[in-house]
Amino acid sequence: MNIELIALIILWWALIAYAVLGGADFGAGVWDLVAFGRTAERQREFIRHALGPVWEANHVWLIFLIVGLFTIFPPAFAALSIALFLPFTLVLIGIVLRGAAFIYRAHATEQQGKFARSWGKVFSLASLLTPFFLGVSAAAVASGRLLPESGVASATYVVSWINPFALVIGLMAVMLCSTLAAIYLTVEAQAARDHMLMQAYRLKAVFGGGVTAFLGLLGLLLAPYYAPILWQGMLMRALPIAIITMALGLGTAATLIQGRYRVARVLVVVMTAFMLSTWGLSQYPYIIPPYFTIEGTANEPSVILVAVICVLIGLVLLIPSLYYLFSVFKLPYPAPGIRNKGRGPTRPAKTSNSD
Fold first, then answer.
1. What is the pTM of this model?
2. Where are the annotated coiled coils located (predicted)?
3. φ, ψ dihedrals at 292, nearest 5°
4. How far apart are CA 75 and CA 171, in angstroms?
5. Which of 217, 226, 257, 287 is the most interior residue, by most CB within 10 Å?
6. Domains in the chain, ordered, with CATH?
């Protein structure tokens, strides 16, 4: 195995980490948007508590992915930056607005400000649109139509990401993030002994998973026409991984129905990893099919070696730090009827201070 392939595998794992961690953050914002009924405000408060300590920490994986891509595969990074300039710009705006709105809403709610609801809408809409455009961008790359026939990237060539396949994958990304978030929130509600929210998020998880599966099937039906390279690659190299992905999806649904929420959380993470691995194997050996291959866009081996060593050193520091962050701040959140009975830790008066 050559050094550029090792580097690409590391970057792909960073993509998976961002999907299962950062994606769940986006999904929580989607559920914040559609919360309704008598428990709507209680649902939003629970989401604020769940996101509060780590609301921007998971973006470290996106930063890691971007830096690694332009260091190790600079021509591919340049082509992506030009061809997907508009959707990437919208993603960046969405991330910034989402982060700013989350903290502004926390302060407005704390001070009983009149703009709390407005900031909440900004947070929720940004959480919806950001994964959509990330999914659209991924579909544009996977389709093999990101670049025109000349092979030269152009920001005005929008056919690659404005087509039925890309739009379906964009919606699928939103629903996958929503499903991840719903399952994570179900586990947290179970730990908090809040059975009402636990059941509510379980239903959301089952619904989100069903819609994700439907959109995935629709994407497979469109792939032979809009992403032939991806389709042929999946049939030749990644079909077993795709079948395992589907089986994991069914297993996730079954464990949710059975009430085995922690098992469902593990299964949905593994399913997401297998789904993204299916994509990677299907378009191998291309980074941007059909013009940019792994070997053709890789930097000098000496540069890649230094980058990989630095990445491994960084991961030794990063992973324990993130684990410590989660273990310190992700404490149980008691249900309303339990908080005042002296059982379990209570929620701090000012959640925004932990940010």
1. 0.86
2. none
3. -110, 110
4. 29
5. 287
6. 3-327 (1.20.1630.10)
